[in-house]
Design brief:
By secondary structure, the chain is mainly alpha-helical. The chain has a domain of about 160 residues. The two termini are about 30 Å apart. The strands form 2 sheets. The chain has a 3-stranded antiparallel β-sheet, with helices on one face. The chain has a two-stranded antiparallel ribbon with strand order 1-5. It contains 9 helices and 5 strands. The longest helix is centred in the last third of the chain and has 27 residues. Strand 3 and strand 4 form a beta hairpin.
């Protein structure tokens, strides 16, 4: 996916593309293993492997003749970005990238982040990171001013967004015939954090609790189909108000 350019993407489009692309790569690797059976094994084993490979390719709309059996999987690489200050907004944006967009990360002592993944997944993660940093920051500024606990608010937003992304991922997988074991995560988050989210909670004297609940509401209200320009997202990584 070319994410650097003229376009703006919504979360759902990116998530769908990411799920489908990674599922396709997983299937191709399985087909490669079956095709390699031609280099060894009995005649019966080779026949069975080839039949399974062709059936798997057909079921997933993959041109088996385009598969290079000897090609290696997408190379895992890394990219470092520097941040002037590592805020809660950054940390929770990174967690979303890790759990939903196929990258991992290491935070350095000097407020830098090392992304680890394929080059295309890292490009997507950088976009998502900038998108979420901007969204978290703007939502905090627009909050009820009685809420004082910034970290709790951002954590609540993170949980709300994760809940929705889990649900979307399950629907994408179901539509594509992919089996994902993420429903337990969604159910846990809902049971653990989403009961009794009311206006009374927002006015609670316990600021951490109130901020957390308000953050969950803000996260659930996030417009995941709305894109933000790539340039804006990248700018947010290094500029702060």
């Amino acid at each position: 996916m070319d994410i650097v350019g003229r376009y703006s993407f919504g979360f759902i489009k990116i998530l769908k593309a990411s799920v489908m692309e990674n599922e396709k790569e997983r299937v191709i690797e399985k087909i490669k293993k079956l095709l390699r059976m031609q280099n060894g094994g009995t005649a019966a084993e080779i026949e069975t492997a080839l039949r399974l490979a062709y059936q798997m390719a057909k079921n997933n709309n993959i041109d088996i003749n385009s598969i290079d059996v000897n090609a290696v999987e997408n190379k895992i690489t890394e990219e470092f970005i520097s941040l002037l200050q590592l805020r809660a907004e950054h940390k929770y944006a990174l967690f979303v990238c890790k759990h939903f967009f196929n990258v991992d990360f290491i935070i350095s002592k000097g407020n830098g982040v090392l992304f680890i993944g394929t080059s295309s997944d890292i490009a997507i993660a950088k976009y998502i990171h900038g998108f979420l940093y901007r969204h978290f920051t703007n939502s905090w500024r627009a909050r009820n001013k009685k809420l004082k606990n910034r970290a709790a608010f951002i954590e609540g937003m993170y949980l709300g967004i994760c809940y929705m992304l889990n649900k979307e991922k399950e629907q994408i997988a179901e539509g594509a015939g992919i089996v994902l074991l993420t429903n337990r995560i969604s159910d846990y988050i809902k049971k653990r954090f989403f009961n009794m989210v009311t206006e009374t909670d927002i006015r609670s004297k316990n600021q951490a609790h109130a901020s957390h609940r308000a953050g969950i509401v803000a996260g659930l209200n996030t417009k995941l189909n709305k894109g933000v320009g790539v340039a804006k997202c990248q700018k947010e990584l290094t500029e702060y108000n």
